[in-house]
Design a protein that fits this description.
Distance between the termini: 77 Å
Strand content: 35-45%
InterPro entries: Ig-like_dom, Ig-like_dom_sf, Ig-like_fold, Ig_CD22, Ig_sub, Ig_sub2
Order of helices and strands: EHEEEEEEEEEEEEEEEEEEEEEEEEEEE
Protein name: B-cell receptor CD22
Structural class: mainly beta
Number of domains: 3
Pfam families: Ig_2, Ig_3, Ig_CD22
CATH topology of the largest domain: Immunoglobulin-like
């Protein structure tokens, strides 16, 4: 911590500010305030500004307070309506001027100074402590392909004091992983199991997490199946609808329908409808779901009219 301070002292000793600036190092050699140059605090947390001060032995301290002002007679921070009930002076009237500010907000980001008044003079520690307030934000790619490695970062707008330990959550559950480093979470060879909502927090401030960010994993169609409606016996002349379903997290899936061992498609789209079904429509049907990342075919589904035997000798 640096010992800092320059004050417009009693008017009879320092009538003009330029004289204070000129003779401050001489006149103020026994006067001073020491505190850190800057502090970075997490939004919503409490911050303690450590502070100490010195003055000539023949002075008696009568009043101490912190201020966000820098004029000749700055106001007491604890009396400011925006800080009411949030400022706690932890020091004394001897040498400790530590101050605690609770429930910090973004608007608290500014310079703070310690002021003390003795029976003979007054002093304002300059330039003061610069408080920066940050929240947490998760940085992640909007989409990631299955099999790739992705790194999620817990970002702050300033470097938090006291070297924090970051914690990660997925879908509200604490993640315990070996591949966490500083403010980063690394997901190796991602799969559909890694998709979800991610948040980060600072240990000790778990109640102040970042907003949730969704990680989307893009992968080829999986678990592709065919359903038949109606599901009971199929009567000649009726209508049958085959529907293809697939688990694929991609903007567009194309469906293609095939019958028996014929390589040419018989239809396109998620549903394939056979109207006025005849014996010639009997056979094994399957669909292929495809996106730009890959494709998957279903197992064959037999379509047999009532009274006809199921076709079993087709190899796909």
């Amino acid at each position: 911590m640096k010992k800092l301070g320059l004050e417009m002292h009693q008017k009879n000793l320092c009538p003009r500010e330029e004289l204070c600036l000129q003779f401050g190092s001489i006149y103020g050699q026994n006067w001073g305030v020491a505190y850190p140059d800057s502090i970075c605090a997490l939004k919503g947390s409490s911050v303690t500004m450590s502070c100490s001060y010195t003055y000539p032995n023949d002075n008696t301290v009568e009043r101490t307070f912190w201020t966000k002002g820098d004029g000749y007679d700055p106001p007491d921070l604890s009396e400011d309506p925006g800080y009411k009930g949030r400022v706690h002076y932890l020091g004394d009237k001897q040498s400790d001027c530590t101050m605690q500010l609770i429930h910090v907000t973004q608007t608290d980001s500014r310079m703070y100074r310690f002021r003390f008044i003795t029976d003979k003079d007054k002093w304002l520690g300059q330039p003061g402590v610069q408080l920066s307030v940050t929240d947490l934000q998760v940085e992640t790619p909007e989409r990631v392909k299955e099999g790739e490695t992705v790194t999620l970062k817990c970002r702050t707008t300033c470097s938090l004091s006291n070297t924090p330990t970051f914690i990660w959550y997925k879908n509200g559950h604490d993640l315990t992983r070996k591949n966490m480093k500083n403010n980063e979470l690394s997901l190796q060879s991602v799969s559909s199991e890694d998709r979800g909502s991610y948040m980060c927090a600072v240990q000790g401030h778990e109640n102040l997490p970042s907003p949730a960010v969704t990680l989307t994993v893009i992968y080829p169609p999986k678990k592709t199946t065919v359903s038949v409606s109606p599901s009971g016996e199929i009567v000649e002349g009726s209508s049958v609808t085959l529907t293809c379903s697939s688990d694929a997290n991609a903007p567009q899936i194309n469906y293609t329908w095939y019958k028996d061992s014929v390589t040419l498609p018989v239809g396109y789209g998620q549903s394939y409808i056979i109207n006025n079904i005849q014996s010639s429509n009997s056979g094994l049907y399957y669909c292929e779901a495809q996106n730009k990342h890959g494709s998957q075919r279903t197992t064959a589904v037999p379509i047999t009219l009532k009274g006809m035997e199921t076709v079993t000798d087709v190899v796909i």
